[in-house]
Specification:
CATH architecture: 3-Layer(aba) Sandwich
Oligomer: single chain
CATH superfamily: Gcn5-related N-acetyltransferase (GNAT)
CATH class: Alpha Beta
Structural class: alpha+beta
Number of strands: 5
């Protein structure tokens, strides 16, 4: 049975491993390097580690979720609340499920839980990034009612 719940301290080793996998996967995709800089993740191959998780993903304005399949941690969801003008907006920073556990609903459970947490936190909207060509992530977020509202095109200059 798939589920999502707030990550517990005992989940941090698995969460750190999953966040590194998500980071390494994103880093390899077009636009991934810029996305990771925006999330302030250390670039590969530097480890994320449990200490980094505690320092960056604890607090009232941040949520770290463990996605489980038969009570084994196989996914990670992370988000934080931002303030834009006078409105609170949720930002999904990561929604990742290890390859062998995909397609059974863990990602949906993570995204749904983050949206519920943002709603309970007084957010009026949710933003989530999807890199170019990452149709699976785009479809996951669209299944939660999100829609693309901005494409950022980029070119490095000499």
């Amino acid at each position: 049975m798939e589920a999502a719940r707030p990550a517990l301290q005992g989940d941090f080793p698995a969460c750190a491993r999953l966040l590194e996998e998500a980071r390494d996967r994103a880093f390899a995709l077009r636009g991934g390097r810029e996305l990771l800089v925006g999330c302030a993740l250390p670039p590969p191959p530097l480890p994320v580690g449990e200490r980094w998780l505690v320092e960056h993903w604890t607090g009232t304005e941040r949520m770290l979720l463990a996605g489980t399949l038969d009570q084994v941690v196989v996914g990670l969801g992370a988000g934080h609340v931002t303030v834009r003008g006078s409105e609170r907006v949720g930002a999904i920073d990561c929604c990742y499920v290890e390859a062998d556990a995909r397609g059974v609903g863990v990602g949906s459970a993570l995204a749904e839980s983050l949206v519920r947490w943002f709603t309970a936190s007084g957010c009026v909207a949710v933003d989530a990034p999807a890199l170019p060509g990452d149709r699976v992530t785009k479809q996951l977020f669209e299944s939660q009612g999100l829609s693309a509202r901005l494409l950022v095109l980029h070119r490095r200059l000499p």
